[in-house]
């Protein structure tokens, strides 16, 4: 009997608190907790695969919906699959297109059989079913595929969240039945909106339906307050088995990542670090800054003296400021490298703290220094993000 495509070993922690583990794939081990950069269209924007790997990333995310539209899964399969085609020599997780059920609400029609989209590119009609979502991801050749699900707005009432949950569960079983699973793991997605009882029920019922190799927790970080995200993650985790990896979808701000690690999640993804980077936003131990600000014009030292990324080791903050002011393409690359490395280092430090039994102290120390976006700015960023988002576009 061949080894499973994905295995998870829990090394410290357990059910509902911070954990450290190891995700094993055919490409090697990935220590958790881990942040996964988003390479929606088979590329992490502005970066080569080697540059992404150098930040410490061991898993990246690609989006099945976008790759279905162009170039098409058949073209990727003919090129040898995503890994060979894009030159990425580590693990890949593919999203099913489920988020587009939410983000393309104005361009789709939800049915029991699946979802019918109007392409945001040319208006062509596209039908995505649980079976076709699995087939697309198998053709892409990812290591982890996600079951098709229905994501609701954060303010959905309980009947609407219940309806989405029930469809999500029926679709998860159809995905399971359609999935060949020989070289690819399939994760179902917990839903339930912002209703704790539904969240717990969704996780528990999915865990009871099959011996899934891992679980996604979806429908969070879609505009709800940070406190609500924490509560809904806790409700979801309470119904999941401790020996399987938990992927909290769409989280990428440093403060949110530490919240999620504290709540028992293992894997995370978000376009935030690369999107911020392309707009001059950079993570530092003291908080998020804009490298475009005049105060960096004469800072001839690194952006972060403690950072070991290519950007901080080789270039002055004043040079990065100059590149952005001149709209040079290198600016987007260097800022994106720094932000991805910042999150990788944060996850490495969080893992070390979990293993040492000092995570609570580590988290407190980090947040005493780090200044996140304030509540009003944070809400506005999320509104703008969701308003223009047609799915993760790294």
Structure description:
The protein is of the alpha/beta class. The protein has 2 domains: 276 residues, TIM Barrel; 96 residues, no CATH class. It is built from 16 helices and 17 strands. The strands form 5 sheets. It has a 5-stranded parallel β-sheet with strand order 4-15-14-13-12. The two termini are 38 Å apart.
Would you identify the CATH H-level superfamily of the largest domain? Answer: Queuine tRNA-ribosyltransferase-like
Oligomer: single chain
Alpha-beta classification: alpha/beta
Share of residues in helices: 40-55%
CATH architecture of the largest domain: Alpha-Beta Barrel
How many separate helices?
Answer: 16
Fraction in beta strands = 15-25%
Unreliable runs: none
Calculate the mean pLDDT score and round it.
93
Strand order of the largest sheet: 4-15-14-13-12
Computed CA radius of gyration, to the nearest angstrom: 20 Å
Give structural attributes.
single chain, 394 residues, alpha/beta, TIM Barrel, 2 domains, five-stranded parallel β-sheet, four-stranded parallel β-sheet, 16 helices, 17% strand
Summarize the entry for a quick read.
The protein has two domains: 7-271 and 378-388, TIM Barrel, CATH 3.20.20.105; 277-372, no CATH class. Helices cover 43% and strands 17% of the residues. The chain is built from 16 helices and 17 strands.
Which helices and strands appear, and what pairs or packs with what?
Blueprint: E1 7-12, E2 20-25, E3 28-32, E4 34-37, H1 49-54, E5 59-63, H2 64-69, H3 73-78, H4 82-86, E6 91-95, H5 98-103, E7 108-110, E8 115-118, E9 125-128, H6 130-140, E10 144-146, H7 158-178, E11 185-187, E12 189-190, H8 196-209, E13 215-217, H9 226-237, E14 246-248, H10 254-262, E15 267-270, H11 272-278, E16 281-284, E17 287-290, H12 310-314, H13 317-325, H14 329-356, H15 359-369, H16 375-388
Parallel strand pairs: 4-15, 5-6, 6-10, 10-11, 12-13, 13-14, 14-15
Antiparallel strand pairs: 1-2, 2-3, 7-8, 8-9, 16-17
Helix pairs in contact: 6-7, 7-8, 8-9, 10-14, 11-14, 13-14, 14-15
